[in-house]
Fold each of these.
Amino acid sequence: MSTEPALPRNFLRPCLLLLLREQPAHGYDLLERLRSLGFDRDDPGGLYRSLRSLERDGLVCSAWERSTSGPDRRTYKLTRAGMEELHARTKALAEARETLDIFLSRYAEFVTLRGAETRVEARR
């Protein structure tokens, strides 16, 4: 069983939109910054596929940036449509969190009740 937290399906997309809202960035920078959002595994291929998909969907745009210390890099920026998508995804995540909070609360009640039942049975 995995010890990594289970992230919502397609959670990478809103995370990339958020990071690009904070500042334009190139792929390697985004890969590094994703760690703070729970992405521990390095998956450059998945990152670049997601960035290309976001660009195809008009949510980000990119341009090549000259580098004096290495190869040129593609820098990504959030578009107006990307900002709107970020707002929509954030709203959906907030609604999902409310549902998860209800689930976790009910589960905690069950575990507490089950623990009390076990203690009573042990005393018999």
Amino acid sequence: MPRNVQSQSDMRISDRLNVGAGTVKSAGRVVEIFEFFDDRQAPATVMEIAEGLGYPQSSTSALLKSLVHYGYLDFDPHKRSYILSNRAALMGSWVNDQFFADGTILAMMRELGQQTGDTVLLATRNGTHAQYIHVLQATNPVRFHIVVGTARPLIASGTGYVLLSQLPDDEVRKIMTRTNAEARPGQPIVQRRDLMEKLELVRRRGYAFTCDMVTRGGGIIAAPIPVAEGSPSLVLAIAGISAEMQSREQELARTLLEAIDARFSRRQNDHTHTAGAIYA
């Protein structure tokens, strides 16, 4: 799997999914503009957006004007800056409203961030990858900046292990076979026995812990959030510097699992499923 090599002066992580066959380029750029604002959480000018995403300024300007026209961006003519509109903020709020509408997940993420000082992220499955759909950046002095939309292989990442641990072994094998077949030259091939042993450990402990797997110097502790049957799986994770994560594994794992259990144990019913034995 590809590895990000980060220096102390460059701690930004942004591995997006490759543009696939049949993907419309302009649609991808619109999505990345939304994710840019989700990560920035502040207004931005055309130049800042173009530089941040590596787009030509002329096409960026045209896209932004179109999004203003359709009501998804607001434009400040005095500061010449753009920001997500209230319409964009409300779009999709009805999805999984039992978790998001009352702020349960977001409040839990904020509390974990305040408790640990580390990055807290929410991930879900996107094809053969785990994708970060919401990120609260760390407040610790030395930290990684993880960008919303970053994707990690299911078969070679902490969040991926949690998602795979919820699937039947046959489906895991198919995902592994496909990912290995699509691996670029030089990328290691994941062995079935090794992967299944890791997933069994996740199921037994209720969480996944990995260090230096995708990002050198980075570590992550991830656990499943209980969801209603038929809903997309969600993973909550704490990420930080690998040396710190290793020394605090038990503490952080306990903090993460207790937070999830406290928030969701009362919500569980006969239709709730998770991968972690903690909920058995």
Amino acid sequence: MLSKHLNLPSYLKALSVMVFIIVLVFFLIVGKSLLVPLFMGGFFAILFTPLGMLMEKYRVPRTLSSFISLLLMVALVVGLVSFIVGNVVSFTKDFTNVSERLVSVGQQVDTWTEENFGINEKLAEKAESQYLINYLDEHSNSISNFALNTIGSLSGLVLIPVFMFFFLLYRDHLTRMIVMIYRDKDPTLVKMRITNLRKVILNYIVGVGKVMVILAILNITAYSLLGVKHAIFFGIIGAILNIIPYVGPFFGVLLPITYSFLTMDSLFYPVAILVIYQIIQTVEGNFLTPKIVGGNVNLNAFITFLGLLVGGAIWGVAGMILVIPTMAILREIFELNEDTRPFAMLLGEEKNDKQYLPEDETTE
């Protein structure tokens, strides 16, 4: 190949890498509406591949097995969305109590700020129901635009099951294509890498799912014992948000804390929720995730955190969810070529560095 005979200076190699990164980021931003459903469909396909293979083992045609997997995925998503929407709607019944609580807190804050700083922001007046209604009426246009933009972005969700179906249907075809791309490598080795990659992503997704179920049970139990309304909803939402490292748990506990502060008559409840949630997160971080998820993705903490920032900046919440398994895929791909192995080492953990270094360096 031509690339094997080119001996570019180091500065040109660095420049080419920078240009490639800039072009890639631009491509990811411009193609967000298509690429996010494509990646999501791919990960759902990996998740349901074992089910499809099981059905095909009993002579179920691949088209039918892919369609059944698709229906099951849609049913699970629709059920989850219905559960969330139903609970959000039920929150409206607590609006009167919330308004009264806001007025009470606003009066206390107004009194304290006026006594200590001579400032009165009239928070109690702003917390009244009529004020909130007038505010919503005045800003209805911007709220409507936000809702329309949100619905518009959600329209891309329709593509996810479509992509998932085709990934399941043509998975062998895609495997053969990858083998042809790396035709200078041993086909058996490439197929082994692809199989290993599927297992890594599948184990990661299943492991995260198990952790989410355990967290949901712990959260629901804790909130129920404290007497927090909608304990099941808050427990499940907190477990789902935990899929986003670092920032997900923060928003997962913020919802029940805010709700308990506004609807319950004591600060004990939000403080207790915070303490219990922190205990649960400690158990999750030090026991559940290491034991269940383990080192499936083998990404170092710095790259993971940096990836979350970049993924969030480019694709929002979807990017923060997709970035970890995507980087795990890239690490496996980088390991297929000697020229890209340094990038695989960069993404991986420090304890695995020796497998990338020459033998004379590992023996020092």
